[in-house]
Records
---
Amino acid sequence: MKNILFTVEKIGPYHNARFNYISESNQLNLSVLETNISSNRYPWEENLNKNYKALELCLNNKTNKKLQIKRKVNKILKEIKPDIIYLSGWNEKISHYFLFICQIKKIPIVILSDSRYKGTKRNIFIELLKGFLLKGCSSAIVAGKESENYLIKLGFKKSAIFKPYNVVDNNYFLSTNKSRRSNKYILCVSRFLKLKNHKKLLKAFEIYKKKDGDLNLILIGSGPEKENIIKYKEELSCSSNISIEPWKNMSELKSYYCNAKVFVLLSNNDTWGLVVNEAMASSLPCIVSYECGCYVDLIKDNNTGWGVDPEDEDQLVNIFHEIDKIGESEFFDRQKSCLNIINDYSLENFSDAVKNSLINSIKKSKFSKLSLITSYLLFLCI
C-alpha cells in the first residue's frame, strides 16, 4: 500500500469528494496538506466527512515564513513518508520548497494543473522557469485539452500527462434529474468578480426581456462585486425578473439546478468553471463563454449547450430566444448529451488518473538538478 500526499490550498466539497473516492477505491494511505486554511476565496461549508488524513500548514507572522515552511514540510515528510506527492500548482513558496526537497529525497512529484496558455499575458522568462520546474515532475494530471497543451508547450511529455483533474461528484447531482419541475429561469452560479462578467449578462438579459423573452434570471454567488451588481440590476427595466441570491452550499444548489432551464457562465477569463460540471451532471444544458477552460472539452460540439463570445450581447440574446423555442424532444436530447459528456469527468476517472500517474511516476521517476536549483532559488528570492 502506497503512502501519497496531496497539497491543496483549502479542502472544499470538490476536493473532499475526490479524496474520499481515491482513498477508498485505490487502497492508498492518503494524506492531504492544506497550505492556506485561512483562505476565504470560497465560503465552503466546514463539516466534511473525511476518509483520509488532513493536515494543516499553519504559519504565524512572528517567525520567518521560509524557515517555518522548511521545518513543517520536513516534519510532515518524516512522519508520513510519502512514496509520491501530488502538488497543486507551482506558484507558491510551499510548492517551490516541495519541488526542491523532493529532488533531494528522490520522492516523485505529480503536478496538478488546470492552467491554460490563453487568458493570461505570458512572460518568456517566467515560462522558461516553469519549464525548468517541470523537469523535476514525473507525471501530471490536468483539467482538459487546453491545460494538457500548455504543459506540452512548456516541454512536458504527453505520455506522462493524465486527465481529468477538474471533476465533481456527478452522482450527487444526478439525483436531481428525475425531479425537474419548473424550468422557468436562466441560472448563473459564480463568484461576484469583474472577470465573471455579470453586468454583460444582465444587459443581455434586459434586451432579451424587452423582446418578450419568457425566462427569468437567477444569480447565485458572493464576492467583492456583489453591491455593484445589485445596484446595476436595480437600474434595469426587468429588475423584477432577476433574483440575486447569496452563496449556497452544495446541498442547497441541487434544487436550483433542478428547476432551471439553462445554465450560463459568461466569464471573460476562467481556467475551467466547475459549476458547469455541476450543471451538466444535473442534465442542465449550458451557455459557456469561449474564454472558459471547460468550453473546449464540455461544450464545443454544441450538443450540450452553446458557446458564446463574452463581449457579444446580441449573440447571447439570440441564444436566450433560441432556448425559448426549443421543443421538449430537442431539450431532452441536450440533457442526455450533457450526461454522456460529463460521465468522462467523473470521480472514477479522476481516481484512474491518480492510479495511472502513480504507476508512471514510480516506473519513470524524474529528478532534475535544474529543477532543484530553480525551485530553491525561487523559494529563497520571491
---
Amino acid sequence: NAASVETMKATSLTDTLLNIIPDNPINSLASGEMLQIIVFALIIGVILAKLGERAETVANFFSQFNDIMMEMTMMIMALAPIGVFCLISRTFANIGFSAFVPLAKYMIGVLIALAIQCFGVYQILLKIFTGLNPLKFIKKFFPVMAFAFSTATSNATIPLSIDTLTKKVGVSKKISSFTIPLGATINMDGTSIMQGVAVVFAAQAFGIHLSMTDYITVIGTATLASIGTAGVPSVGIDRILDMTRTAVNITGDAVCTTIVAHQNKALDKNVFYAEEN
C-alpha cells in the first residue's frame, strides 16, 4: 500500500543500554538484535579462548560456518545490481517525476553532506591517525561500499567488510570481528546526517525558524537516534538515500577499525601497500 507510512519507535538512551544485555540469545539471533548478539558472541569467544583445545570443535564450527556465509554473500553480490535496478525503477514508477522534483533539493543536500563525511572527514582522520594513503584505502574498500550501496543494509555487509579489511587493508581479524558488527549497529554517521538534514528540510518546508539551540538539539537527537536505528533497508524515495548512507556508515566503521588496529599494533601495512593481482 503506497499510502502506508513506516514509523520508527523512539528508543530512550536507558533502553538502548539495557537492550544490549541478551535475556534470550536465540531470540536475539532470530530477530537480528545486533548488540545483544555481539555481547553473547563476546562471552562465547572469551570462553572458547579460555578452554582452548577442549572447545576446538565448536571454534571450528563457527569458523567454517563463517566461510559458508561468506560464499553465500558472494553469490548474492553477483545478483545485487539487478535487484537494485528493479527497486529504483519501481520507486520512480510509483511516485512519478512530478512528485520527485520538489524532493530533489533535499536529496542533493543529503548526498553532498554524505560525500563530505565519506571522502573528506573519514579520509582526513585515516591520514592523521594511521598515515595510510586515503585514495588507496577507498580503492581497496570500494567493492564493500558498492555492496552496501546495493543492499542498503549495514548488517548484510559485515562479513564482506571484515574479509576485505583483513585481506586487503591488513587489519587483524581480532579487531575487525569486534568493531565492524558493533559499528554496524551503533556507529551510523550517514543515518545521523540524513536525520539532521531531514529536520532542517521539514522546518523550512513549514516555515519554522530554527535557533542555534534547536540545531544543537537536532544534532544530539539525531546522534542518539542513529544508535537505536535498525541496520535494515527502508522504503520509498528514501531508498536511494538509504543506499548511499549505508555505504557511508560502513566506510566509517572501516576507517575507525583501521585506526583502532593501528593504535593496537594490529595493522599490517605491508598488506595495505601490496599491489593486488
---
Amino acid sequence: MNFAASAFADLSRIREEKPLVVNITNNVVTGITANALLALGASPAMTHHPGDAAELAAVARAVVLNIGTPGEENVAAILAALESANAAGVPVVFDPVAAGATSWRREVVRRVTEGGRLAAIRGNASEILYLAGEQSTFRGADSLHGSREAGAAAQSLARRLGCAVCVSGEVDVVTDGRANVEIVGGHAMMTRVTGLGCTATALVGAFVAVNGDFFAATTHAMAVMAATGALAAAGTAGPGSLAVRFLDILYTLTEAELAAGARVVA
C-alpha cells in the first residue's frame, strides 16, 4: 500500500468509527480545533475542569493536551487527563505551545513530560529544541527556527520519551527516533490563521486513535493537514476564506487530493 492509500485508510477509519478525542486545549483555539475534528470525522470533547477531564480521558480513544493558555485550572486538567489516560491505555498527544518562553511554561512542560507516557508531540522548531534541552528562540508562540534545524533534536527527544515527534513548519519533520520523514505541502497563508498549528495537533490525536503505530499515525495526520491547507489556499482571497475552505476541504478530502497535496520524503 502506498503512502497516500495508507493515510487515507486511517482517514476512512476516523470517518467510520468517529473516535472520541478529548481536548484540554487553549482558550484561543477551542472552536477551530473542535470544528476541524468534526470535519475530519472524529468526535471532539473539550474540557478544562480537572475532574471532568479525568473522567472523559478514561473513556476516550485519544487525548490532546495543549498548554497555549496555561491557567491553573487548565494545567490541573491536563495533568489529571494525562494520569487517567495512561491508566486506561489511551494515547496522549502533547502540544507544548511556547514551551520555553516563561518559567511557568517550563514548569508545566516538566510536569507533563515527567508525569506520564506520551504517544506523540507536535510543536514548532523552537518548542521541540527546548524540549530536547537545546537553546531556542521565541517570538510569543512563534518559532524563530526552521523545522529542519530541530530535526536532530526531535530524534533525540523521540528516543528519550519513546514517542513520535513532529516539528511543524514550512516542511514538517516527523520522527520516532529511528525513522524520519519530511512532509512537503501546506501554504504560508496557514500561519495567518490563529489555531491551525493547534489544529494539526488535534488531527494527530484523531489519527493515533485509530492507528497504534504512532509514528505512522502522526505522519498521516500531518499529510492530511498539509494537503488540506494547500487545497484551501488555492484561489482564496486571504486568511478568512482559507479558514472556511480548510474545514470544507477536510470534510470532503479524497485519496487523490491527499496524494496530490502532500509529498512525503523518507
